[in-house]
Amino acid sequence: MSHAAAFPLAQAPTGAVAARATDLSKVYGQGETRVTALDSVSVEFRRGEFTAIMGPSGSGKSTLMHCLAGLDSVSSGSARIGDVELASLGDRQLTRLRRDRIGFVFQAFNLLPTLTALENITLPMDIAGRKPDKQWLDMVVDTVGLSGRLAHRPSQLSGGQQQRVAVARALAARPEIIFADEPTGNLDSRSGAELLGFLHESVRALRQTIVMVTHDPVAASYADRVIFLADGRIVDEMREPTADAVLDRMKRFDAKGRTS
Amino acid sequence: MFRTALRNLLAHKTRLMMTALAVLLGTAFVSGTLVFSDSVGSAYRNKMAKSLDDVAVSVTAGRSALKEKDALDSRVVESVRALPGVASVRPSVSGTVMVADKQNNPAGSEWGSSGANFVPGANGKDSRYPIVKGRGPTAEGEIVLDAKTAAKTGAEVGDTVRLAVDGPVMTKKLVGIAETDDPKVSAGGSLALFDTATAQKLLGTPGQFSELIVTATPGTDQQKLTAKVRETLPKDAFRTQSGKELAAEESKAIDKETSSIRNTFLAFAGIALFVGVFIIANTFTMLIAQRSREIALLRAVGASRRQVVRSVLIEAGLLGLVASAAGFVLGLGVATGLRAVLNSAGASLPDGPLVIEPMSVLTALGVGVVVTVLAAWLPSRKAAKIAPVEALAAAEQPPAPRGLLLRNALGAVLTAAGVAIMLYITTLKDSGGLEIAMAGSALTMAGVIVLAPLLSRPFVHLFAKATGRLTGISGKLAKENALRNPRRTAATASALMIGLSLITGLTVVAVSADQGVAKMGQQDLTADYKVTSANFGGLSPDIAKTLAKEPGVTAAVPLRSVGFQSSNQPALAYAADIPSLGEVADLRFVSGSPADVRKGTVAVSDQYAKDHGLKVGSPLPMDFYDGEKATPKVAAVYAKNDVVSAVLATPSLLDPHLEKVRDDEVLVKAAPGKAGELRAKIKETLGGNPLIKVQSQEDLRRSEAGSIDDILYLMYGLLGMAVVIAVVGVVNTLAMSVFERTREIGMLRAIGLARTGVKQMVRLESVMIAMFGAVLGVGVGIFLAWSGGHLVRSSFPQYEMVVPWARIAVFLLIALAVGVLAAVWPARRAARLNMLESIGAQ
Predict the structure, then answer these.
(1) How far apart are the first and last CA of chain A?
(2) Quick check: B477 and A71 CB within 8 A?
């Protein structure tokens, strides 16, 4: 098993840990229906880094993200955002933590159909009752290329544009970390590539930290680092990934899956 | 298709629960009403049959009973008793007797205080009035009371009871307590029994009876016996009826009574069901929208449009059947409850088993099924329009709602027509036109219901703007949700609007009428107390004299009235001492001098003077009903007031035309600060006579307005059902909305909206819908009350529209509470949704 600390990070001079899992386990059900989704996983995500989590279906990649993002509870071990231990927080504090320190991009249904693009983008700040930083907001909107479409409702936007609104929403509140769950899953390849470009750019230019769950090797190739999960464990890690290298790694899972 | 319908019904049990509840409540109301009226009718009939059981013939005194030869006396009794086939003749005497309770008020109600003679048989007992304690009355100084009345007087056997018939108070010794099943007594009346001679002396004419009840020997034909009795007695002097005729007559009266109660209740049940229609239609619209892919699939595999429609209608029919069956069971409870409620409100409904006619069952089930199917008809048409290709489309979002243009145009036309009719009503000079007003009201309400989606937008915006600062993001989200489907929001609010507009309209009219009534009697009265006789028989002139001497009394002014005609117009003339009348009434003279009103002159009101072309000095020809005429001169004119209406004269002018010189009322003004204690003293001074009624201004207002209030509260109760169903509708809409927006709620929670924020969002949407319905209802209600009120005004000039803002504020507060309450369950569900499952939900 490799450890993040063993690899010096070129793009994160501060090196501070944005999120960390230590011996994290997640078990569903009891008795015969007991399923271990995560089996004492330890991993760190550094500031200003774009990490992709990959693995076959049922490998626990989404569960890992949900536990780290405070969307799901942990069975044992520890999940931290910055230096806050999530297991010690109640529902109210977790909600506040998600609101103030985490951004989300989901596969679909990211937006409220009743709100305009701009209203959707500022929603987390509206919930917190904060005024958005105008300059920052303009920059984010520019970065994702939505300037002309802010007054549109989601139904008037294409799928790619909708996901860009979701990314802008995640960026606008300047969270410590953004979790993206299959953000390109519902997009055609061109829109997907565009969106991944924006995510990459936000890490480069805006120094965001992004953790993305995906099963698409091309998507993973936009990340600085790829973590591979299988059967609830971290089985490998790759720096500066290319699509081909990731695909090769994934094929090994498939082969294993077929033979076992 | 039947199986599909059944499966769908079972699959959506919980989502259909609220709809079923709406149908259930409506049918419970219908079946409750039907069972109640059947049960009460049958109980009345049983009771009557029992009391008329052994009555073969009844003979009552005719109108000319004062003439000697037509008297219903013992000669008549003997001649009837001598007829073959007559088993017994019970000669009875009855009348009004007021028994004093501990406070010297009548122990029984004004209309139910009766007295009768005790008719002992050979064994000394009277089968009609079984004595449970003591013995029957045998002498003039003795009385027997029913148990309830005895308890109210606090008298035990052997004690003295105070009572009055039409004059001074008298005392009698209580010698026994009797049982009675007289419905008047069980309804709050009282019964006093005397021996026959005393009863005749007190209640009628010595030696005469008011009714003979004849029983027949077994095997005697009632009809023939009645004919024989009729032949025996002088023609036209008495009214002779067979027991059967009496029974038929009463049965008819009972039917009339129960059917009028039934029809009133059914009208309200109809309103409740109509409100239910909105909820049913809402539910099926939502279900079909959610199920559109499924329906498209059915169409794709070969189901015809007609089959899709049929499937939806069968589902509705099944739902209606199940819900109305449950509703019928609840209706039995309603029927029992109605009796209890009406009884506690003072109606004396006889006891009896619930009567369930097969017709009631069929009607309740039929109404439930038909209403549900009809309400689901429009949504089912929408289902038929779903194209098979939609099964393949990955329709994430429901199709954009159709434009409201046609609907708004129709709504505008309906509303305009309704408003125009109501405005026309305000120009009418007479009270005819009730039907037109009702049609106009219905049109106006229908128009507003059709327009409601259009109106919802500005209302919700305004509401959100007004509360935005307080409610933050939850308020904004709630606003957007409420606006998302204006048809649904409008239909839900309309259900509430119907109930509230009727409630508001009735309240405004009733409160206005109340004030009109209060004005009519009291606005010109400055006296503290009005003393009258409880049996409307008038007061002896001595009473005013006694009261005038009472310490603490500034003035005790007697008033008497005589009817007369002047140029064939009937009017009332009052006789009073004019200088002292000024102390108890607001009497202002506009011309002439009150001092000049003596024998031979009168004062008239300015209104009467104007109507009859009179002025000071003109003669007023008066034709009295005793055949005499007089032509006094007008000596003064006073401003119209409500204490003495048309003509004011001296007693010396009017007294000769009175049959008996009795005062209608004595108006008492207390010395400053003495008003409070005076009431008890007046009663005491007048010997504690239960006949004497002492009413303060407040009592008078309450007694005039009391019945209006009672009716209004009954209406509130009946319309309450429609409101309850509307609340069920709000819960239904919210629950469905939460279900539809599961993914959104999951996303909101993930990006940081707290559970309380989610709850707040659902709650605020609920409040917006409820307030929209309430504001529409109150607005329409006030408009209809204003325009329809003109009908009342034409026959009731004191009527002036008063909007009871405080009460309307209470309605709005209730609507607010309704909104909050309706949201409790859906909000909790929304807040408890599992975030991850919600985001992934299909």
Answers:
(1) 22
(2) no
- Contact assessment for residue B728 and residue B280, using Cβ atoms and an 8 Å cutoff: no
Chain A: give the shortest CA distance to residue B358, in Å.
53
Q: Where along chain B do its domains lie?
A: 55-252, 540-663
| Dist CA B169 CA B101 (whole Å) | 13
Look at residue B340 in the predicted model and tell me its pLDDT: 82
Contact at CB, A98 and B752, closer than 8 angstroms: yes
Contact across the interface for B472 and A155, Cβ inside 8 Å: no
For residue B425, pLDDT over 90 is answered with no
Q: How far is A251 from chain B (nearest CA, A)?
A: 27
Asked if B751 and A155 come within 8 Å (Cβ–Cβ), the reply is no
Distance of CA B544 to the CA centre of its chain: 38
CB B767 within 8 A of CB B816: yes
Determine whether the interchain pair B483/A114 forms a contact, defined as Cβ–Cβ distance below 8 Å. Answer: yes
CA dist., res. B470 & res. B476, Å (int): 11
Residue type, B124: G
Selected for mutation to probe chain A from B489, B751, B837, B842 (highest A CB count within 10 Å) is B751
Separation between Cα atoms, residue A166 and residue A186, nearest integer Å: 13
- Beta strand B211-216 with B86-92 is antiparallel
Buried-exposed string A117-147: b where 16+ CB fall within 10 A, e elsewhere: bbbbbbbbbbbbeeebeeeebeebbebbebe
B488 has a chain A CB within 8 A of its CB: no
Q: Is any Cβ of chain A less than 8 angstroms from the Cβ of B476?
A: yes
pLDDT 10s digits, B705-724: 667 777 888 888 888 888 98
Does residue B151 sit at the A interface (CB-CB below 8 Å)?
no
Inter-chain Cβ pairs, chain A and chain B, closer than 8 A: 72
Residue B469 Cα, gap to closest chain A Cα (Å): 11
Query: Residue B718 and residue B265: Cα distance in Å, rounded?
Result: 8
Kindly provide the b/e burial profile for residues B764-798, where b requires at least 16 CB atoms within 10 angstroms of the residue's own CB: bbbbbbbbbbbbbbbbbbbbbbbbbbbbbbeebeb
Q: Which helix (H) or strand (E) holds B139?
A: none
| CATH number, domain A49-58+91-259 | 3.40.50.300
Q: pLDDT tens digits, residue range A18-38?
A: 999 999 999 988 888 888 889
Three-class HEC string of B286-338: HHHHHCHHHHHHHHHCCCCHHHHHHHHHHHHHHHHHHHHHHHHHHHHHHHHHH
Whether residues B751 and A100 touch (CB distance < 8 A) is answered with no
Q: Is B571 left (phi over 0), alpha (psi -120 to 50) or beta?
A: beta
Confirm if A224 and A48 have CB atoms less than 8 A apart.
no
Across the interface, do A106 and B839 touch by the CB < 8 Å criterion? yes
The alpha carbon of residue A109 is apart from the nearest alpha carbon of chain B, in Å, by 7
Q: What residue segments make up the domains of chain A, in order of their start?
A: 49-58+91-259
Kindly indicate the confidence band of residue B435, based on its pLDDT and cuts at 50, 70 and 90.
confident
Nearest to B640 by CA among B617, B616, B608: B608
Each residue's pLDDT tens digit, B167-191: 778 889 999 999 887 767 777 788 9
Both tokens of residue A30?
């009891």
Give the CATH number of domain B540-663. Answer: 2.40.40
Residue of B nearest to A69 (CA): B750
Which one-letter DSSP state was computed for residue A82?
T
The pLDDT assigned to B290 comes to 78
Per the CB < 8 Å rule, is B473 touching A123?
Answer: yes
Residue B754 has its nearest CB partner, among A95, A104, A108, at A95
ipTM: 0.82
Pick the more confident residue, B677 or B332.
B332
pLDDT, tens digit (0-9, with 9 covering 90-100), for B442-485: 999 999 999 999 999 999 999 988 887 788 888 889 998 888 88
What are the chain A neighbours of B737 within 8 Å (beta carbons)? Answer: none
